[in-house]
Amino acid sequence: xxxxxxxxxxxxxxxxESDFDVTSPWDGTTVGTxxxxxxxxxxxxxxxxxxxxxxxxxxxxxxxxxALDHVSRRLVERTEEIARLISAENGKPIKWARGEVxxxxxxxxxxxxxxxxxxxxxxxxxxTDAGGQGRLALTRRFPKGVVLGIAPxxxxxxLCAHKIAPAIAAGAPIILKPAPATPxxxxxxxxLLAETELPAGSWSILPVPNDRMPxxxxxxxxxxxxxxxxxxxxxxxMDSVPRKHCTLELGGNGAAVVLADWASDxxxxxxxxxxxxxxxxxxxxxxxxVQRVIADAAVYDRLLPRIVAAVEAQVTGDPNDDATDVxxxxxxxxxxxxxxxxxEAVDAGAKLLTGGKRDxxxxxxxxxxxxxxxxxxxxxxxxxxxxxxxxxxxxAEAFAAVNDSKYGLQAGVFTHDLQAAFRAHRAxxxxxxxxxxxxxxxxxxxxxGGAKQSGVxxxxxxxxxxxxxxxxxxxxxxxxx
Length: 481
Hints:
Elements: E1 6-7, E2 19-23, E3 30-35, H1 39-51, H2 53-57, H3 61-77, H4 79-90, H5 94-117, E4 122-125, E5 136-143, E6 147-150, H6 158-170, E7 174-177, H7 184-193, E8 203-205, H8 213-218, E9 224-228, H9 231-240, E10 245-249, E11 255-258, H10 265-280, E12 292-296, H11 297-312, H12 332-347, E13 351-354, E14 358-359, E15 362-363, E16 366-369, H13 376-379, E17 386-392, H14 395-403, E18 407-408, E19 410-414, H15 418-427, E20 432-435, E21 451-452, E22 455-456, H16 461-468, E23 469-476
Parallel strand pairs: 1-8, 6-7, 6-9, 7-8, 9-10, 11-12, 11-19, 12-17, 16-17, 19-20
Antiparallel strand pairs: 2-3, 4-5, 5-23, 10-22, 13-16, 14-15, 18-21
């Protein structure tokens, strides 16, 4: 542990009995060794965060912004090194890992910008009624307290950034728990933050195992929880702490709708290429990857073979190769689960058009049609490189098919019809509608989150800052307005 912050560096601070190796899902090699914090060290980190909360909230905006700018710049300088680390611990193809570093660069830059303009205060005159004559209300936002950020494995750098950067920008101390499978990228952020002048205790990176997470969740000194991960774990956290503020970014089974007007050869080629890419990027391990394609009968017969061909053109293999589109899943167990779900669907009557094969932690990009509604694949999040294609008769049936899900994260609608785009925005029960593209588009500054069982609250730098803070009103009396 450093003298000012809690974080456990890869390898060189390992202590022996509490070490664990991070291994590559591609070839099983050891990527790094992490030293788990002891209970006493976790307590030290939480106590320090709680003790510094008032000081950190009062830290000048330029200090917090400078620290965030520093991390953004350092990520740029170390892009290739960090991308290689992400790829090694996660199995993500290197080209996608580089993109993830680029997104994290933007997250910290956006946060630096928001730190400089957030909480400027909003004035409201109160003399609209006689009793308010001579009074003015000034509303400002203040941190709710220490944030516990719990990040998943699929974007091990950028989703850690989405916890840390808004908290620092808002002046809220943060304890970050990275995913056990991918702690190294989060720890890199600790290295970069340690180069800044942020107050002691204002951030900590604690790679504790999942069985020690409940104690952190229950700790009353951590009143805000920001969780990204599975529906089961997220709602279990919320249910266990009903008086805490919880932001949950949970699962999805993203739908891409192709309407009848998206009908030219160029249109269909583009839709097929985007669907193939974003059903398989990150090995399909993204909450907004394409899992369902819902195509109007007018274009279905021409679109389907294009999708199959585009999926089969995806380059699978070594994630270290610049040409690789699809690498392994995060573990062999994850690939085995996908294999089981696909086998169940085929046994129930689904038609397998391509893929359906597993090799260790890798699963071949897969396309199914005629997926029975009562199969696991039809109603759960596969989190693997698998998509199904469904034929519908018209826009209304397409939108109803999107909504026929317990999830509602994002949807893509391929259409040129502006009126159809607005109808989709009104009808679809999701957190975001992407017109002319797949549901997998996310800009890191926009509000991101879902409806139904896809979660509660919104990520996106400024929107997370709103979640981490509350409004406090100051009423000034005796003013000559």
